[in-house]
Design goal:
By secondary structure, this protein is α+β, with helices and mostly antiparallel strands. The protein is 18% helix and 39% strand. Strands 1, 2, 3, 4, 5, 6 and 7 form a seven-stranded mixed β-sheet that branches. The chain is globular and about 40 Å long. The termini are far apart.
């Protein structure tokens, strides 16, 4: 079973959290699902450096990375993902989607309205609990 390590940014601006929607994917279980932006950690890269790079590549933003929020290990049908999510502060809602098809800025109580990728759901639940 393939194992991948990824980072995800919980990007917050004025109490609202950035949620991004994946495009069409051959893996139906992640196709068009919402997720927190981020991506794979490359060899020799710290988690924070990987997150800064991914947020710059995917959204053209450089938020302040605050702290580790939650690490999730999730088994998808054909790979296992270890996802480290970090709280991030953004001074602006201005983003440029380069890999996703849609974005939403939502308060924690509205997060459950979206169709989330399974690995992101524990993060959503903890954000809702924390308010």
């Amino acid at each position: 079973m393939k194992k991948i390590e990824v980072v995800a940014g919980i990007v917050i601006n004025n109490g609202e959290i950035l949620c991004v929607q994946r495009g069409e994917n051959k893996r139906s279980y992640i196709s068009k699902k919402f997720e927190f932006p981020g991506g794979k950690v490359e060899d020799g890269e710290t988690q924070e450096a990987a997150l800064q790079r991914e947020l710059q590549e995917e959204l053209s933003i450089s938020p302040v990375i605050k702290e580790l929020f939650l690490t999730v290990i999730h088994q998808y049908p054909d790979f296992e993902i270890t996802m480290h999510s970090f709280l991030c502060e953004s001074g602006s809602k201005q983003i440029n989607l380069t890999e996703h098809i849609k974005s939403e800025w939502l308060t924690p109580d509205k997060l459950e309205m979206l169709d989330w990728a399974a690995a992101d759901i524990p993060i959503v639940k903890k954000l809702i609990e924390n308010g």
